[in-house]
Design brief:
This protein is α+β, with helices and mostly antiparallel strands. The protein has helices at residues 4-14, 21-62, 78-86, 120-124, 127-130, 150-156, 196-199, 207-213, 233-243, 253-256, 258-296, 298-306, 311-342, 344-355, 362-365, 376-402, 406-410; strands spanning 66-69, 75-76, 91-106, 109-118, 133-136, 145-149, 163-174, 177-191, 202-206, 219-220, 222-227, 249-252. The chain starts with a helix and ends with a helix. The mean pLDDT is 82.
């Protein structure tokens, strides 16, 4: 498509001489702009993907894909019901849960928390918790021993073996009024799953102890269902409803977290559009630098035309000059973006150590580490967009160069 002569002249025009230095500076700014735009877009998309995947992994690792509730607060006959649900195609595990809100106090400090009553064997199967025991031992999770989040333990100044007092808002009714129900439990250990919300407010309690504390003898609040494919939650939910006679209420993870993940998706799309403007601005810089180059090389174009170069040859020469800036910038941005995304947590720690500030507060962003997941399809879209805008930016200046009249260009020379 391009001859050796066209490549030679195009590359020669990219190496501007001293009197053409300003044109060269604009071309360099265009290249850097495209590189930074492509790199920034790849990094931001990787971080947004990482946020979604990490949050999804932690939310679904600690909560069921589906939750089955009774017609009232209590769900009785939960073991036979769980057996029916386990027989539904696609269901992996069913866990009886007692859930309630409490005030956790110790050493003069207090913090609102969520208590989840669960059997030891069911908790041991949840790898997100079982594989992230921060202190103590999961084997001690029995009788009246509880497992709490590491950040909650730090807030209350507790460690494994200490006692924590739980105060329930549903108190005991006495002749003198309602008295809050209080009970002390010993810590079997702490867990750290890497998500601030869970590490700072979750307390796991043995199922029988939770039934006693929340006054639910022989009952639970709900069944948590884990399935083989989270994206099929609604379809399997309908199958479970049919298997249980349709008398239960079923909520899937998409309903429970819809606003949260929708907000992430909207933010991700908006960030993509905003950061695309960086590449567009850099493409306009290519247009301006190429127009200035065409104007400066008017005499050279006229001489080439008189020597037999066709309009197509001239157009291809300037197209190669402009497109080379875009191609080099896109490749540089591609490499920079992937390298930055692969080492983003190390870079964050380095910047924090350099500035002494906190760049990624777990209290605000829910996660304790900055995640980044590179999607090859998205990277391909970004690279193709960078190349496409660069190619489009060179068309008009190349067309202007090809339409230049040799006689007019040499009239005053």
């Amino acid at each position: 498509m391009f001859s050796a002569f066209e490549w030679m002249v195009a590359m020669r025009y990219l190496r501007a001489r001293r009197q053409e230095g300003f044109i060269s500076v604009i071309a360099w700014f265009s290249l850097i702009g495209i590189a930074l735009g492509v790199a920034t877009l790849i990094i931001v998309m990787a971080v947004m993907n990482g946020f979604r995947q990490e949050l999804l992994t932690r939310i679904l690792g600690l909560n069921g894909h589906l939750s089955i509730y009774g017609s009232s607060y209590e769900l009785t006959g939960y073991d036979p019901l769980a057996e029916k649900v386990r027989k539904v195609a696609g269901v992996v595990a069913v866990t009886p849960i007692v859930e309630g809100q409490v005030m956790a106090t110790a050493r003069g400090a207090a913090k609102g928390a969520v208590v989840r009553g669960i059997r030891h064997r069911d908790l041991a199967r949840r790898a997100l918790v079982a594989d992230n025991i921060h202190s103590g031992s999961l084997a001690e999770f029995k009788d009246d021993r509880v497992l709490i989040g590491a950040r909650l333990a730090s807030r209350l100044g507790l460690s494994a073996g200490d006692k924590i007092t739980l105060i329930s808002p549903k108190g005991n009714v006495t002749a003198f009024g309602t008295v809050p129900r209080m009970r002390a439990y010993r810590l079997a250990g702490t867990f750290d799953v890497g998500m601030y919300e869970y590490d700072s407010s979750f307390i796991f309690m043995p199922l029988k102890a939770a039934q006693v504390y929340f006054r639910l003898p022989g009952a639970v609040t709900n069944l948590e269902v884990f399935i083989d494919d989270p994206d099929r939650a609604r379809q399997i939910g309908r199958d479970i409803m049919a298997a249980t006679g349709g008398k239960k209420r079923i909520h899937d993870w998409q309903q429970a977290n819809s606003s949260f993940f929708n907000a992430i998706q909207v933010e991700r799309n908006v960030m993509f559009l905003i950061l695309t403007l960086i590449i567009v601005v850099a493409a306009f810089n290519i247009i301006s630098s190429m127009i200035m180059l065409v104007k400066d090389k008017g005499k050279d174009i006229a001489i080439l035309r008189t020597m037999g170069a066709t309009r197509g040859t001239i157009m291809r020469i300037f197209f190669l000059s402009g497109a080379s800036v875009g191609i080099i910038g896109t490749i540089a941005g591609f490499a920079l973006g992937l390298a930055f995304a692969a080492n983003i947590e190390t870079i964050r720690q380095w910047i924090q150590g350099l500035t002494g500030g906190e760049l990624f507060a777990a209290e605000i962003y829910f996660l304790s580490q900055l995640p980044a997941v590179v999607d090859p399809k998205e990277v391909m879209v970004v690279v193709l967009m960078g190349l496409g805008l660069s190619f489009l930016a060179t068309l008009y200046p190349s067309w202007r160069a090809a339409r230049l009249d040799p006689a007019e260009a040499l009239r005053y020379e």
